[in-house]
Amino acid sequence: MHSLLFTIIALVVYHARAQATVTSTRTIALPTARPSNAFDVPPDFPSVGFETAFLPGYNNQFSDNLVASLGSRMGAKPIIRIGGTSGDIIKFDPGQAEAAKCVSTPCNSAAEFILGPSYFNALSRFQFARFSVQAPLTDGNPNRTNIIAYIKRAYEALGPSRVDAIALGNEVNWYENNAAQYVADAHAAKDAVTFSLDLGSSEIWEVVDTASEHASTGKAPYTVKGVYDAGINRDGRVKYVAEHYYQFDGKTLGIQAHLLNHTALRAKLANYETSIQYTRNIANGKFILSETGGPLGVSDDRQTLFANTLWSVNFQLYAMSLGVSRVTGVQRPEAKRSLWIPMSGLAVPGPRVQAPYYALPFIADFIGKTVSGNRGVINIDLNSAVLSAYVMFEGQTVARIAIVNLREYAGQGNRNAVKIKLNGIVGVNQSRVMRLHADAGTAAGGFDVNGKNITWAGQQWSYKVNQGKGHGTVTEKTLQVVGKVLELVIPDSEAVIVHLK
Ligand SMILES: *[C@@H]1O[C@H](CO)[C@@H](O)[C@H](O)[C@H]1NC(C)=O
Ligand SMILES: *[C@@H]1O[C@H](CO)[C@@H](O)[C@H](O)[C@H]1NC(C)=O
Ligand SMILES: *[C@@H]1O[C@H](CO)[C@@H](O)[C@H](O)[C@H]1NC(C)=O
Ligand SMILES: *[C@@H]1O[C@H](CO)[C@@H](O)[C@H](O)[C@H]1NC(C)=O
After folding, report:
1. By residue range, what is the domain housing residue 312?
2. Secondary structure (3-state) at 119
3. Ligand 1 geometric centre to CA of 407 (Å)
4. pTM for the structure as a whole
């Protein structure tokens, strides 16, 4: 009797918690045909990055499991970007036993490191991934010995098939005063690499890696076009133009204002459109965002929790709708905003999976592993700061719809919801809906971080449970299409994927 009563109470409480009150309704009309600007997003769009000098910290089974779990949902191997500020100032000592020795303070991504041969051991891990590595570049007269020491060892440790690109320096706008100077140094680096390695003849270079401070304000000292005009692609082997993106400095507070603000995201990404269009349409290259994050620094730990996950989902979806070919979530072991903390003993507790990791399986599933026909992604402009929607075509067919409800629910009090009416669904009578959910809303950091779970379609990633392999049963809900319309409720601070095939 007692336990039955308890069960009934528990069910009522659970129900109340899971419920959200619909306070608004929004109709979204699906396009009747594939728009001509739908972008055929490459299957290796989702990506992670490790700051160069900190690669050895990721040389463990846990990191390998998280990358493999992401890769298992993708139609191509994910790319790991090894790069960053430290990647330009590393030096190499062939007699050093230590993988990476910090020789300046503080030991952050702008510190000087000396690498030894064992640094490259980490590259034999991550067999489920391919890599972008960075040739260290400096202002004027690049150090050939240094470039060869790094690139040759990295290339040999990875093997040609796992090298996706070689970046020519990082955030070069900070130290190369004009396009001609960058191009001269980049060509010196290319010559050093091609002299010491047989790279074959395919496209391989990644260029500029423009700092977020320049790219997102439209105030770079020289543009992508300027770099091409100065001859960066004289050898015809530039593969990627890369720029960096951080949503905000992290110093100003306000989760809704910065991370959960679609208007702010659109305004900032608009500054990349000239570079994206030039790269794709004139230079015939691919445009990637090779270093990205929500807050650049972190002044409030809430900036690293579930709001950062929702930001990342919305950012990646919007970026792909603009024609961006890859987004790399960047990290170093003790950066608070990281996707995971790979080890213990750092300023941030670890090892643990952090909230933003959950954006990766969501994005991978939206892109789809096996598809019939060309992918094509578009944003549906809802003219809203807090609600966004995206459609993924396969060929001419609408295959998936992603919807993000960015209104903040911080875990206290009543949770509101928006009712969505998806109009114009043809050819199917039912859909499967998957949710990116946290009972605690933006207070959730995931099971490892604060025990406030985050789930993607019912699944979780945790160091404690099984070293990041992913666990839990896939949970989806089947909803009926009635007269070409599908109705669904999305609680505040939640994102969903609606599958129509
Ligand atoms: C050039 O690189 C090598 C290898 O890292 C290093 O030992 C040497 O000090 C560098 N030279 C200069 C001038 O920085
Ligand atoms: C969202 O961003 C826009 C543009 O930056 C800004 O004008 C607006 O105040 C922000 N919204 C909130 C709720 O802070
Ligand atoms: C959907 O349901 C209608 C009415 O029951 C039926 O006529 C139609 O064949 C169904 N379509 C599909 C694609 O299952
Ligand atoms: C949170 O996740 C852990 C690990 O999967 C699980 O043991 C626990 O029951 C979950 N808590 C809730 C409230 O679902």
Report:
1. 46-367
2. helix
3. 52
4. 0.95
